[in-house]
Structure formats: structure tokens, C-alpha cells
Amino acid sequence: MDFTLSAEVDAARLKARQFVIDEVLPVEADKNNYDAHENITLAALAPLREKAKSIGLWAPQMPVERGGMGLTTIGMAAVYEEMNRSIFGPVAINCAAPDDGNMFLLNRVGTEAQKQKWLQPIIDGDVHSSFVMTEPHPGSGSDPSMMLTKAEPISNSKWRITGRKWYITGAESATHFILMARTSDDPRKGLSAFLFHKNQPGWRIVRRIPIMGPEEHGGHCEIEFDGLEIDDSDRLMEVGDGLKATQIRLGTARLTHCMRWLGLAKRSMEIARDYVEDREGFGSKLIDRESVQIKLGETAHEIEMGRLIVMKAAWKLDQGDFARQEVSMAKIHVADTLHKAVDTAIQLNGARGYSKDTVLEWIYRYARQARLVDGASEVHKMVLARFYRRDGTDFWRWGV
Q: In this predicted structure, what is the pLDDT of residue 265?
């Protein structure tokens, strides 16, 4: 397997790097550009998005014919990592969660009519979207088979939705929603996927759940469905394909999270390096102390391992493989690495790192969710144990 970037992808990567330096970091540095939930204000975001579109740096995961950059998964890894040098980078070029994963799923499995109605407005940046799956106990979390929200046919052309969801990312600002609901008791084919618009009656946001933050646009919401009616034409894939749709979306979405997190880990270390290069104490610069060098070296090592795991998973996805083993490995390792990188950077910056004078404390709070979103680390470790139990020493096989 070869992770060498093509000239075109490397040019896109460098364009992303320069865009962050010239356009995004100055916006990030101005606290007036932050909303009440510590995300970029929509007023500050709009001109960044227009600039990104004008230079051809927009929707890297989407086909060129739909207005995207048409990158492979390996190409996405290179560009996403560069964009998340800034906390506002991904949303500026339309590759932030949850829109990123939703666009991927709709482009992969939607009908042409569904793509035009539900996908294209997300690609164009006209609307935000949300993926509606997680439920309060005893409903589904990491285990979709526990889903309680029901979709019941009320005619040959309509479904009625009842149930409750929570921690639904982006729901408060979303216009288009992808909903997972139970359509039968079949253990493998009991779930189906549906599409609905925010203006349809029969559902409501119960509350925006306060979290440690910072937050994506639209927060994390609890939602109640009490008779939402959905046309059968807005069913995504076949009846019973909901679990398959979830796996298609989350496989790539988990990996794109890792791509972005590597960018944040590198940014954290960049801030740490710049500080210890200049800061002096007890007669020497911090960078000249062995204890500081060990921290920097260890974390740089962990970041590079994460990049290699992500690239291997990206390569396998580009070959048509599901790469479940590699994606789980990446999710575990990169989530831990992000936390380690920003924790190390705060430690080396001292009180400055703990304050809001740098972006480190923002990244630190954000990093804590990395070990939870899209499947807790413990769940992914169980997945790996299942593969190892099945394959034995072939768990470490080489591709041939």
C-alpha cells in the first residue's frame, strides 16, 4: 500500500494549509467571532465559506459534478488534517460533522431524486443537517439493536414516527434530518432510515442539552416524535436497511473524525513547541530540558502512528473494503492521542495553557468527547477483540 499523495492532492493540501493561515486563523483569534456556545458565528463563517468556494476549496468529500472536490479517502485525510489546524477550519470548507457524514451517506445510497432534494442543499452550504439515532435508556446507544423509536406504515405511501432521541448533534440548526427507526423486530433487518425536513409537523426539540462544550452549530438535543409522517419516497434505502445505512455512514465518519483530530493534535503541539522554544526559567530555555524533550518526542511519535493508521484505513476504504478493523484502531488511538497532545501542550504552557489566552483549553474540552462519539473506545476495543478471536494470528495479516 502506498500513501504517497498525487500532485493534485498535495496541491489541495497546501491550498488548505494556506487558506487556514491567511483566512481562518485570523478569524479564530478574534473572540468577537465566537457565538455563545464557543463556535464561529454564522456572520463570521459566511465570508470564509464564500472565499473557500471561490478558490475551489469546498466539500472535499463530494463529487466534482455536485460542486465538491472529488477527493479519495486518502485525499480527504490529507486535506482534513490541514484544515483542522484551526478549530474553525472544517466548517469553513464544509467538511465538519455531522454534515460531513450525512453527505457521504446520501451521496452513496440516495436515489437521484433524494440527492437533489436532500443532499445538494447540504453540499451547497444552504442548510445544515443532523443524524438522528441515539436514544435515552433503555433505547439504543452504541448498540442499534436496542432502538425503540418506531416507524409504522399508515398507508402504502406514508410512515408514522413515534419515540424519543437524545444527544442529536446539530439538531437545533438543522434543516434536513436522517432518522433511524424500528420497522420490525428482525435482529438484522429491523431498522430503516428516513429523511425529514425541520418544518414537518409531529416532532419537537424537547431541550438543547448543556454539555461541557464547545459545541457544534445546533448543539446536542433531545427530540420527541409524536406522529411525524414521512412519505415513503423519503425512505432511504430499502425497508430493513437501516443498520446497513448506519454502518456505511459511521465507517467513514469515524475516520474523518480522526483526520480532523490529528490536525488539532498537531496544532496543540505547535503551540507547545513555540512556547518552550522561547520560555526561559532557571537559566535555560524549556526546550533544552530533557523532560520537555521527552514529552514532545513521545507525543510526536503518537501523532505519527495515528496518521499511519488513518492512512491505512483510508487506503482500504478506497479499495472498496469496509476497513472495520482499521477504523476501530484509528478511532481508539487518535482519540487518545488528541487528548494526550493537548494535555501535554497545556502542561508545557503552564497557566497560559489553562487560560483562554490560547485555544488549548477549547481543544482540551473538545478532546474529551473524542473517546465517546461514534462509539466509545471500549466498544471499539470489543470489536477488535472479536476480530482477533476470529482470525487469531491472521489478525495481523498483510494485504496481498
A: 98
